[in-house]
Amino acid sequence: MATQRVLDFLASRRPAGPCLIVDLDVVAENFRAFEKALPQSKIYYAVKANPAPEILRLLARMGSSFDTASVAEIEMALDAGATAERISFGNTIKKERDIARAYELGIRLFAVDCVEEVEKIARAAPGAQVFCRVLTDGEGAEWPLSRKFGCVPTMAVDVLRHAASLGLDAYGVSFHVGSQQTDLSAWDRALGDAKKVFSTLAGEGIVLRMVNMGGGFPTRYLRDVPAAEVYGQAIFEALSKHFGNVIPETIIEPGRGMVGNAGVIKSEVVLISRKADNDNVRWVYLDIGKFGGLAETMDEAIRYPILTERDGDEKGACVLAGPTCDSADVMYEKSPYPLPLSLTIGDEVLIEGTGAYTTTYSAVAFNGFEPLRSYVI
């Protein structure tokens, strides 16, 4: 994950403080892998994963479309060179004035998950295409995304029926199987639910045309994950199983899978201590923690690979924590992290797989620490 380009950058630039370095060559490789794995699906990069302008410009040049969650993200995608027809407003929770602004900017594809949202879009974006998000169980995901977004399939039918009655284009359904999803059957279950919605509405003369299969495609952390082509094959088989020869248009929204393994955070050991003389577990404090960009260590959901220059030495369990004056700023305690016993104050560590959901999760100035710096190479 720490490519030679990243290592050379760190050696030559020696940036002070914690920072993220993203290798654009890896992002490009990931985009090509998704294109190859699912050649019939349109790729809508999830901008929220990492909205660095350099990443957005690269993906726009390569032909990517963009999944956005706000007007600000829509404007970022437009500034990067994407045209409005390559942008979806994928957040199911939108202010009506933001819907109107997106419509003014040319956006015509919107996500919904309730009739109330449909009514806002009918007023602010007449004639727009809408797709309804269906709830999934998120089983198999390291970062589940159920409950807050989506509705049960029977309600999705009602939502899309209402959309059509208000003059909107009932375009299709969407789902998200959960971030860092490693269960290949998750897409099969979700596509089965999507087919039920398609079939019910077809019986009423409302013909849906698109399935947005969301994100969930993982990046490698401490455990190996299936390659993009393995996911592609499993998804194609599930589509064929449920839709037969009449496969609808499909969209995928990779975020973590597009940029996660392209990024490495450089950090420094600030302190190593114990809580008692007979304590066998060290506390290792880094100059970055949950509030500095590692929010996904919440509940120890994501366990990042950590490299040190002493990795050949004997290792021992430690509690890994951040530098802020907040007791929640502890990354790994329930399952202590093995780090070299020879690790010492001032040592640099590399936290791999951090290209997604780090800079945007970083606090603005909690405890006076500056937001996570980012370098895109």
UniProtKB/TrEMBL annotation:
<protein>
    <recommendedName>
        <fullName>ornithine decarboxylase</fullName>
        <ecNumber>4.1.1.17</ecNumber>
    </recommendedName>
</protein>
<dbReference type="Pfam" id="PF02784">
    <property type="entry name" value="Orn_Arg_deC_N"/>
</dbReference>
<feature type="active site" description="Proton donor">
    <location>
        <position position="325"/>
    </location>
</feature>
<keyword id="KW-0456">Lyase</keyword>
<dbReference type="InterPro" id="IPR000183">
    <property type="entry name" value="Orn/DAP/Arg_de-COase"/>
</dbReference>
<dbReference type="GO" id="GO:0005737">
    <property type="term" value="C:cytoplasm"/>
</dbReference>
<comment type="similarity">
    <text>Belongs to the Orn/Lys/Arg decarboxylase class-II family.</text>
</comment>
<dbReference type="GO" id="GO:0033387">
    <property type="term" value="P:putrescine biosynthetic process from arginine, via ornithine"/>
</dbReference>
<dbReference type="InterPro" id="IPR002433">
    <property type="entry name" value="Orn_de-COase"/>
</dbReference>
<dbReference type="InterPro" id="IPR022653">
    <property type="entry name" value="De-COase2_pyr-phos_BS"/>
</dbReference>
<dbReference type="InterPro" id="IPR029066">
    <property type="entry name" value="PLP-binding_barrel"/>
</dbReference>
<dbReference type="InterPro" id="IPR022657">
    <property type="entry name" value="De-COase2_CS"/>
</dbReference>
<keyword id="KW-0663">Pyridoxal phosphate</keyword>
<dbReference type="GO" id="GO:0004586">
    <property type="term" value="F:ornithine decarboxylase activity"/>
</dbReference>
<dbReference type="InterPro" id="IPR009006">
    <property type="entry name" value="Ala_racemase/Decarboxylase_C"/>
</dbReference>
<feature type="modified residue" description="N6-(pyridoxal phosphate)lysine">
    <location>
        <position position="48"/>
    </location>
</feature>
<feature type="domain" description="Orn/DAP/Arg decarboxylase 2 N-terminal">
    <location>
        <begin position="26"/>
        <end position="259"/>
    </location>
</feature>
<dbReference type="InterPro" id="IPR022644">
    <property type="entry name" value="De-COase2_N"/>
</dbReference>
<comment type="pathway">
    <text>Amine and polyamine biosynthesis; putrescine biosynthesis via L-ornithine pathway; putrescine from L-ornithine: step 1/1.</text>
</comment>
